[in-house]
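Teaching assistant's notes for section 4

Start the section by putting this record on the projector. Ask students to predict, before seeing the second block, whether Antitoxin component YwqK of the YwqJK toxin-antitoxin module will look compact or extended. Collect guesses on the board.
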Amino acid sequence: MSKFSFLLLFFLLLSKVAWTQNNDSNADPDSSGVVNSSLLPTTMPLLLFDENKEKEEKKEKKKKERKNIWFGIKTRRGYAKREIRGQEIYEYFNYTEDSRRLDPYIRDVYWFDTQERSIRTSGYEEGKGYLLHGPYERTINETVVESGMFYYGTKHKTWMLFDSNNVLQDKNHYTEGWPKESRISYYESSSRSVEEIIPIQYGLEEGNYFYFYDDKQVAVTGEYQYGEKVGLWTEYWDTGNTKAIRKREIQYQEEPYTKNFRPYIRAEWDKDGNLVYRKEM
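Reveal the predicted structure now:
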């Protein structure tokens, strides 16, 4: 074999090894703790419940509602229909054609899927549908069972649930997707720098949980359902809010009240994002 042929073969083998290593790295989601996250670096919600804003909205309500203008935004009316076990379910709503960057802290964002002609709470992408904005009403066999208001796809103001006889069963209050029962603690009350957000609904933890470092970077994220921790909870290193590096992931039950399930550490990374531990399944 000539010297040229040998060198060519050597470089081809070297390239193949490098490509394989790179391909394996990309295929392994745990190969690096560095992640792209809409939460990190973050601009945390500094003031969740603005009472002055609510007062102004009440003043404008009577002036605008006849023109389908809600919270200063022009909307269109729509409806969705489905049938379950012989019951006709209608959803009447307003939606906006305005685009808006979604709040990454809110778990459920409601939007009208124009292809499926149904309301969904996940998977929203601009161009696929429209964010609900304005009054909403759900009826079963012409009886109102739920009513409320949306603000750019998030539950807003007072929401009410009724039984089949239209008797009020429950009432909840929201501000742009945040249940007003949520427990929020601050590092400094004067600056409204959030330390922890515990989502509360119907008296139980329900929704996305967040804990922040004092430099406003997200430290812990997770989800509650019916008062139980579910799914993957993630802890992050404090990088001074420059980038997101996972520190530890803890796996909880996928469904609340799962019997005989014990949470476990799924993976850990060092401050540089190098994988130091992963539970073998």
